[in-house]
Every structure is written in C-alpha cells, then in structure tokens.
Design brief:
eight-stranded antiparallel sheet; two-stranded antiparallel ribbon; flat
Length: about 290
Amino acid sequence: MSAINNRYEFVLLYDVENGNPNGDPDAGNMPRIDPETGHGIVTDVCLKRKVRNYVELVKGDATGYRIHIKEGTALNQNHVEAYESVEELTPGKKAKPDEVDLARKWMCANFFDVRTFGAVMSTGDNCGQVRGPIQINFSSSIDPIIQQEVTITRQAVTRIEDIEKERTMGRKHIVPYGLYRAEGYVSAKLANGEKKGTGFSEEDLEIFWDALVNMFEHDHSAARGKMATRKLVIFKHDSELGNARSHELFELVAVEKKPEANPPRSFSDYEISVGAAPAGVTIIEK
C-alpha cells in the first residue's frame, strides 16, 4: 500500500428523477429540505452509506476491506475481535492507552470505512477514536425542489379474509427532479500521521473515487427513482498540507441553470464550468 502524499478536495454532482434521495424520518420520510430556501438536502451519512455498500459489493470480506458500520452487525462484536486478534490484548480488561492504540490500529487495518471516515469505538472493548481523512459536507440541490406526494393503491393483501375488502392506499414522496452538489476533503496528514494516522492509502483513494462515480448504479430502487453521478471534479494539491484554500477551489466549479429551463427537469438543463486551477493544484475530472 502506497501512502497518500497529496491533499485533495472534490466536488460531486449527482441528480435524482422521480425519487427520494434522502428521506427525513422527522417529516414522514419526505425528502429533506432547507425550510428557508426550499433547496433539497442530502446528509453526509447518506452518501457514506452508499460508499460503504459499494466497497462491500466490490470487495466482499477481502482482508482490509471489511465494513465496520453495517446493518445486522453489533459494533462491539468487531471490538471484541480486535482484542482477540492482537496478542498483547485481553478482551474484557480495562485497556491502557498503548493497548487501546494497538486495537485502534487493528481496526484501521481491517475495516475500510474506519480508516476512511473515522469512527468512535470506545464502547465495549475500547478501540479508541479515529478521525478519518475523508470528510463530506451535506449536499444541497442547485435549485429549490418540490416535495411531491404521490398516492398509490395496494392490490395485494396479506390475509385470505382480506381479499374482498377495499384496497388500502399508500403514499410515496418524490422529487420530480433535483441536481445536488456535495463537497468533500481528503487529508493526507490524517491518513499518514505517525501517531493517529489511519493508514488510508492511494489504493483506498482510487476505490473511493470509483465508489463516488458508481455508487448509484448498484443502489436503484423504486423509492429512490433514477439517481446518477453526473460529474466528479477532483482538486489534487502538490503537497500534503495543500497549495490553496478549499473554499476557493470549490468556487471554481460553477453550475448554472439555462434560462429556458424553468423548472429544470434534466441534467441537460444545466451548464457546468470549471475554472483554471491555481499554482500547485491539478484538476482531475471524472
């Protein structure tokens, strides 16, 4: 595994058509929305889940690419495994700081999402805390969205005695169309730090870029409608600490709605432009 020697930022553009990209459980699972502006919101946790699912689909349980946070697994089970796998550790004991550090390193080495996004692993057998080198902001739609409620009818019934009864009604919440923008960061220092580094590598980074491009291709469902990554713009710095400020790089990616697109209903209703990179930064488009 080769270490990361560069800082990165990235801008991800993806869209949804007739689907719910991220339901809000506090609002009846309607699409998340900024109540002040009407712009749609997708949380960082939602995108990280899709990255995790993609990596698990591609890598399975391959050594070093297991997923720590996933459905059907108690997190403390993985902590116990760490203590059982490292000879210097005894499960159930109150670990000392150097022992916790050994457990933390084992978790980073074995679980892709731990060394990528970080994790709090101080429950049960203490594996410490990891600050991940990759962080993602909340996504926001380029334009205000419409939260549309669609009524559906249930034709099938569960019990035989209900066959002659009136069919029940249900509702689906969708966004007719929305183009979303997410921004993120990759810290070489957090990946390679001597004491707290996670060991996140160039090989891991390539899998992460691949996940951002393809994660929606294996996540289709009736609820999410048609979702697709439309553009990924990567800013690669020539150094570990970086050669430009992140917000200035993000501002280089401009997304403009065409005047005749009112309301926008497809990706072709927008024009994307990327400005010239400052000295010490290379732009990679996927």
